[in-house]
Fold DDE Tnp4 domain-containing protein.
Amino acid sequence: MDFIESYWTINRNRYLNPRQPVPRAPDSLDVWLNQLDEKRFTQDFRVTRHQFIELVVLIQDHIVFFNEFNVSQTTVWCQLMATLYRFGCDGNGASIWKQARHFRCAEGTIELFTDRCITALITLEADVVSWPDVNEREEISARIEELSGLRQCIGYVDGTLFPFSTKAEHDGSDYYSRKGCYGMVGLVVCNDHKRIRYLYTGWAGCCHDARLMANCELQLCKNKMFHGNQYLFFSLKGLRLRLRNERGGGRIVAWIRACVVLHNLLLYVPRVGDSEVDNPNRWIPVAKELPDLVDDGNFDNALIRNSDTEGKRKRLRVMKILLDHMTST
């Protein structure tokens, strides 16, 4: 009888817990976008305003941000802002509860925002994180030789540890590293311009760099990734994520990959006020117009507003005027 009563109780109620309103902090949207100076904006979201706009343009058309429900999703820029803020936090600052209060939404909403943005960023990975072809390897080798005297070197490789905030629930001891913490290890290859060209991760923290090297494409596909005498010169603070199962491990790897994509993108996205960009790369798509960033200054309304063409055009014009003013001052 207890099971039957439980079934009917669940069947009659949409929510098992009482639906109680949660007090929200004052709206900070206008402060973040319009009043916060460039230095503090970068401290909070790890990118400049201009870089933030470029990122929104790159991911805003991804299918993950669209649904078939009557109520549209939160605008892409709101979701990306919450995700970037979360990427830049560590320790107690990365608490999902604190961030939910900061962005005036539910804890699960922050998780949804993060997962959607990670999914969208990873779709850029093929263009942003790629192994250099034969001609580009020759160019990299020439630059490194001119800079350091190392001949035939096409990049720098090293192992790194991505620490966990807690012990993994399954096989936790395997994730205990020689550095005295739990985590996941990986190999990262970058070129002389600090652009990451290869990432290999997903291994438990107990694994040594040599084991990763023996199992990665750099070793298994030498003929494809190197030619002649080319070689590599050997030379995230803490993930507040729990490794409970296989899906959790995949999410951590996706988190790392998304951060690598962001790293490479932001190397070549100009900052507001820069007269030129160092080492520009043509593979980075640049926004032709500004995205839908400003609605009416109300964060709550931005969460539920449907996109409208005329309104978007007007907001684009307003934002363009604002950025032109910021650039000239």
Summary: Residues 271-308 have pLDDT under 50 and may be disordered. Strands lie at 153-163, 183-190, 196-204, 231-234. The CA atoms of residues 268 and 279 lie 7 Å apart. The radius of gyration is 23 Å.
